[in-house]
Amino acid sequence: xxxxxxxxxxxxxxxxxxxxxxxxxxxxxxxxxxxxxxxxxxxxxxxxxxxxxxxxxxxxxxxxxxxxxxxxxxxxxxxxxxxxxxxxxxxxxxxxxxxxxxxxxxxxxxxxxxxxxxxxxxxxxxxxxxxxxxxxxxxxxxxxxxxxxxxxxxxxxxxxxxxxxxxxxxxxxxxxxxxxxxxxxxxxxxxxxxxxxxxxx
Length: 201
Prior knowledge:
- The protein has five helices and seven strands.
- It is α/β, with parallel strands linked by helices.
C-alpha cells in the first residue's frame, strides 16, 4: 500500500463494518467466544467473583468459573476484505442488564449462547432480542460432559420461532465461531429483506 492506494493503482477497499452482540447466561462462554475469534487482543472487563456476589451469581454447573464480565467484551474479526465485524459480549448477570440497551444500539444482530446444562439462563437474552426485533441466532455451546440434544429439541425447549437458526458450536474453536458469525450476518440480512417485503405488501 503506497499513499493510501494499492500497488495496482486501485483505491483501497473501505470495508463495511457491522456490530454483533454476543449474549447469554452467566458462564456460558461469551468471553471465550470473543477471544477465540478476535484478530486483535480482545478488550475484557472481567473481575474476580467475590463472596458478596455469591447469593446472586449462580455457579452451579460452572463451579470452576472465578471471574465475570462486568461491562463488556470487545473484539474484531475481518470476514472478508470488505466486511469487518465488531463483537460486543454482554454481561450475563441480571444486575448488569441495564447496559444492554446501550450495547445493542446500532447492532445488526446477535448470538445467544446456550448451555444445555443451564438452558433456562438464555431465556432473558432471547426475550430481549425478540421484544426489540433484533435478529438473533442461538449457538449451543457444546461443553465437555454436557448432554447433546438434537436441534429440534433445543428449539422446542426454548420455544423458538422456526426462522431462528439453532447451531451447535464450540466457543473455544475459531472456525466454529466464524461459522456462527457468518450465520448471524446471513440471518440478519434475510430478516431485513423479509421486513422490507412486509412493509411494501
